[in-house]
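note to self — DONT lose this again. spent like an hour looking for the file last time. sequence + predicted structure for the chain T wanted, 115 res
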Amino acid sequence: QVQLVESGGGLVQAGGSLRLSCVASGYIDSINVMAWYRQAPGKQRELVAAIGSRGSTNYADSVKGRFTIARVNRQNTVFLQMNSLKPEDTAVYYCNCDQHGTDYWGKGTLVTVSS
């Protein structure tokens, strides 16, 4: 059993920056990929960014060049640095990880970007 807790969401003006964090706790043996997803009102949940245990990263086309995912250690903590924010980035952002074939999700943190 793994628990994920996100923090750092809030209100920011277009062009501003925000940093999200996610901390994993509980029974942690071998977490592979950690990722950030987001879901805007009336839209499907989508992958924003992912990072593997060796540091390889992957980003959605819509955030490339603006967002950066980082892992402070191999298992427990992941950040999402969001720069040049746009109103269309407004969504609930969810932390995700996989361990032994089981997906774990955080409760989400709301990011609102005003124009």
